[in-house]
Amino acid sequence: MLVQGRRHVGSKLAALVGGLVLVSTQFVGAPANAADPIKIGWVGPLSPPGGYAEGVLMKQAAELAADEINAKGGVLGRPIQVIFQDTRGQPEEGTAAAERLISQEHVVAITGEFHSSVFLAEMEVAHNAGIPIIAVDVWALKITAKGYPEVFRVAPNQALIAGKYGEWIAAAGFKNVAFLYEKNDGGQSARDVMLPILDKHGVKYDVVGADPSATEFTAQIERFKSHSPAYDFFMAAYSLAGAYPMMNQSHTLGFAPTAKTGIANSGGPAVDPTFWKNVGEGGKYVVTEVVGLPKNAWNDTTKAFVAAFKKKYNHSPSPQAIENYDAMLLLADAIGRAKSTDGKALIAALEKTDIVLGRGRYTFSTGHTPDWAYHQFMDAPVALIQYDKVNQDAEDAPIIWPRDIADVKYLYLKPGQ
Amino acid sequence: MRGLHIYILLAVAALALVFADRLSSYWMHVAIIAMFYGILASSWSLLAGYAGLFSLGHMAFASIGGYTSALLVQWYGIPIPVGMVAGVALCCVLGGLIGWVCLRMTGPYLAIFTLGFSEIVRIIFATEDDITAGMAGLHVERLFSTTSRLPYFYVAFALLVVSLLLMGVIVRSRWGLFLRAIREDEQAASASGVAVARFRILAFAIASGFAALAGSFYGHYIGILTPSIGGLDFMAVLVVMTVIGGMERLPTAVGGAFVVEFLLEVLRGYGQWRLPLFGIILLLTMRFARNGLLTPLWLRFVQLGEPRAVAATALRDVPQKDPAQ
Amino acid sequence: MTWDYIFVQVANGAVIGIIYALIAVGVTLIFSILKIVNFAHGDLYMLGGYCAYYFIALLGAPPLLAMLLSMATLFALAIVLERLLLTPLYSDATERKDEYGLIITFGLAFFLRNIAVIIFGPYPLKPPSFIPGVQHIGEMTVTNDRLFAGGVGIVLILALLYFMHRTIWGQALDAVSQSRESAAIVGINSRRFNSVAFGIGAALAAAAGALIAPIFSLAPDMGVLPNIHAFVIVILGGMGSVLGSIFAGILLGEAENLFTAFFPDPTRALAYTNAFGLLILMVVLIVRPQGFFGRRHLRME
User: Fold this and answer.
1) What's the whole-model pTM score?
2) Is residue A147 part of a domain?
């Protein structure tokens, strides 16, 4: 009977799915016997709609760090095991991932994340469980301003990044800025921090928001071009793939970078591995931020990391990558000093951190002024660079801001100068 | 023993309630999210499965409900349950409105129309960030101040049960019959005196209300809302859940939500392969078990304890199409 | 506000509109024969773009040849997919075929998008230009790639029209699109044409992907927005009308460009551009559900 046949297929499939489930639970729950590794959780976007390009870079760096730590015999005589969780840029996935890491995998600490909105969900879980969590590349002020003892941040925050852009734009003498930002957590927080600073310096600006999935900017750029008085600077806050077509179109339409109008992008894509492949000539004269040490200040750790990363993955690490690398080493250092994997002990050890790693000498502030200072790496390096050659590596591009570490006399190099 | 399956379900529910506190925090979270999806899947099956209105705007109503409740609570300090009721009421009205506007549309036209609606809602929530905080995420007051997930578990459970009972009453009443008549043949239904327009609007209003209920609970549980909850991604997951379970029955839709949510969590162990693997399982299921994996199981489950002869008629009595002919 | 500005915006709208139409025409073709809305079209477009990229990067093929190779690859792949996934659409045992088509292509899209991150890597890629450089037409600046994509797009659409109306195979295809039963009576094996139609639709998506890759770059989730654009165009033009797609594509390009260019609140103009296109879609569906060029007998149900 046909009825039977069809139902048969259904139950077979049910069995198939059931079998898969069983097999995978075993995979997940497989207890590692060999000298019980210390488990560290990693969270971040590895698939759309999250910022998966940045997430993968960070994951690669975390893997590299774990390999190196284990090659040196691990911590407290135990190897380190990193458990990766894809959060897809969605807060609820962050909650689920953090819960899983803490209550199923029993990780001793968590690190990673690229989206502030997701991190805010994850840190609630870590806070409830008393597990330390190190924010790697999330910039929202609220994260440290909440004052949770479990939350540490190695990244600079928007006050340290967008603030620098604001100061630099004013110092470089730009008077009339077109500000284009991607409508997500990164773009919005950049806007919220940067605009008051421009106000303070009397710089005029117009703000335009864009859907993060947009790739067609022609009409908007023509609208910018037709603005009177003409804009002398184009500030973009873009962290996802839309950054490349945006810069391309700005360049080919003759808006920026030109002798009349400068251009900067904040958010990461301008230092990613395929930046030049995507923007070509349009990338020359672009200003962007680097959240690692300037090349002339590189220490042995930085140099070793960059070399090892290039060797393992065949492309340069981005500054986000070294943030994640350092976060792993910081945890290993704290576990070693605490001689324990207990949450409270780890937090106490992290607070006493004083170690030189790939991004300089790490300490975490314990003060609350301003409110975002708590457990923030206050000396997190942030420099604005400007490419002056096509296909230039970010580390070779001259630093233009802040002035005390600048490589060049000018504040901004105009095309044709 | 007639109705044995009801006793079994009651027993399982009682066990779940009594032993809920044994669940680890993680699995409790998974269970809560599964119940959240359960409400959405069953109400979507009311719309798409019973009434044949394949709407892709269901998650948009969840997000409208979530934001409404969150913002009302934030602005006016009203109690959270009142905010949730307000969200539900608003979405009933909006849902009815959408139902009215698309009265003449069927099949892919309706799907694309509602897709357009949901994308517009998402874009508005993302763009008006001075009100909604946009993609940075709206901070939502949580239902309980405790760190434990147990009270949320009970609330989600209660909401799911109440929703299912209400919807069950609807689909077993004459209304349910009318809805199915509309699905099978709108013109014939209209000719035999079914007020097609009224019932299509009603189906949209009711289903959207339940979506809003789920959405507002979700916001007050997770504590953060982003516009992506109303996006196509969530909608795709919801469609998958309902279809894998069996979209023509409420219990199978809920079962689908549980199975898929559980599967998605189990697949976490596979890292980057999680979503592609999920996609393959999905395609296989849809290709080979179009009427849902759980439908045959459920039919057999319902027959438990019934004499064979009765079981046979019961099968024929089931108003939906038999999964296989 | 000068006439120059208006000209520039209108001209750019036309160029991008033709490019949109090229993506949409495959959806139209597939709809008119298989009677399903292909939710995976944007992801076939993505695959086509990556295929062309790798033909250039790995085999050193010239861009135009790479585009043709990519079309052939996607044609073959689509026929396999059609055989594997879509055959239940033609079986009488399948009820509610609309829903099956929606769901199965939904699932396919989900799978393709996520596997692409693993296969192609997470970083955006960009193949070399077909013709590097830009053209200045009055105040308007437009890249050669856009002109080329628009031009080839028109040629491909005309070729499709020629194929549909002037060749035996095409006329058979057209017959199937109008009435499966009548076609069967005159001896046309509609099953074979289902495969062909899905294959051609995918090949057109691949062409669009290859042509657009140098303009917008390649990323695994690049298909999401074009897919929605394609739906808007297909509805505006009338489901199943190839000529209607060209018209509707240009209409959408103009609508979006002019909205971005003239919406009074400049802060929100760009953010609401897509919403504006969708609003037009909704209004058209309410007022004129068969679109502007729709054939009434193509209504579903």
Assistant:
1) 0.89
2) yes
